[in-house]
Amino acid sequence: IGGTLGLTACLYYANRIRRSRWMSEEERAHGHETTHSVIDHFKTLILDPDTTVEEANKRRTTSYYLKMRESHSKSLVLGVTGGPALSLARLIKLRRKEMDRIQHHWKMRNQSHRTIVVMCDDTTRRLLADARRRILEPLEHSSDIHARGAWIPPLNIIPDQDMHVTIALPWWWHTIRQGNNKLTRNMAQRFKQTLLLKFHYPFQIELERIILLGGKLIVALWRCVGDRTTEDGRVIHDRHGENLDPMVRLREEIIRCFITESPDQRRKPLTYQHRMSDTNGTMDSDEVLERQHTIKQRTPGMGVTADGFIHTTLCRLPLECLSSQDIELDKIHRLCREASATLNGHRMVIDKYRFLETMGEGGESNPCYKPLYDETIDAPLRHRVGIDGTVTERKSIQSHTVDKQMTIGSANNFLSQTVAAAADDNAETIEKKSANTLSELFQPPSE
User: Fold this and answer.
1) From residue 41, how far is each of 38, 58, 116, 222 by CA, in Å?
2) Strands 111-119 and 311-316: what pairing?
3) pLDDT tens digits, residue range 41-55?
4) What is the pLDDT of residue 75?
């Protein structure tokens, strides 16, 4: 009996550890899937400015699926163990350490970073906030640092009004130096020039899924949509668009405009490396290697993974000090899947950007809270020039016509359109029918 109990205890604790750790490299490579895969060959797609919407979506949605599958392997967060008094004291100590880490840059008071984001519209914020609330309900979490149950600091829950999509990080954390405000304004101006000169018009993104990324980060993941033409000439606006992927192209152009010099040398790079070179005249080779292309390393979807990642951060879970008891994540994963099934396909227009400089007062994932610099920049609009020289604005996000009816929005003049004539041998009958309108279809038949 003693041996059986000992073996049971060993198996129990081994299972707890297995469920609370990451998959090994071998498990990630093989997993429990069959050898046949629909998405396996999409993992090696390389995204560049000439990548189409369909190609980029195959790459990013494959990455989303693999991240979700990997996150499901972590289904348990171990509680902080010990005696009742000891575990609580240790828990509070770990939580205070976590708060210090979250506010590390803010407490230094001399560092900032710059980011470009797009704010979620009212409808999107409302949907994502409601989904987040439902996903976190099983945790019964508290913001009280002395709570024995699940604890989530307020800074880790992004306020509804601050929900956003991160576009690029042109300048990672650095010490604020003399001329900082001028540098920020120059970078914002450079971004505006890139939008205008490279014709980055408004575009749409579509919600793909919501996942608990890495077992600790609840994010909404997006894909792009574009136009494709069917065999019979109809235009469809969906995830298989044949046009260039606007998000990949935008990020590539932002990176290029900040790290390269124009052929006429009028545009100089705006990077930490360039700024230090101008100040000191030279830099150590190790420093150059460390700082080179930080914007590309930090911009989502453009670094090592290069998977076109588009995300909105909703919440961060402090795994090291979440609770004094073990927390099951299976319910969280299930609710994320249900929220994905409910919200998949929701769209948002990318037409206004915010260039922000923040010191980290809002935490790790919220640059919108009390920024040092905040400028809203509109995407350039399409215009149509008439033969007489008049210029009119043309919306880039518009509905498409199929069989002379609007597929998005209400039909215009529906009841006054003429009914197509039916085949009939009587010419007089054909002429009479062709004069009918659709409104007459709803009238009682005449004798």
Assistant:
1) 8, 10, 32, 21
2) unpaired
3) 788 888 888 999 999
4) 86
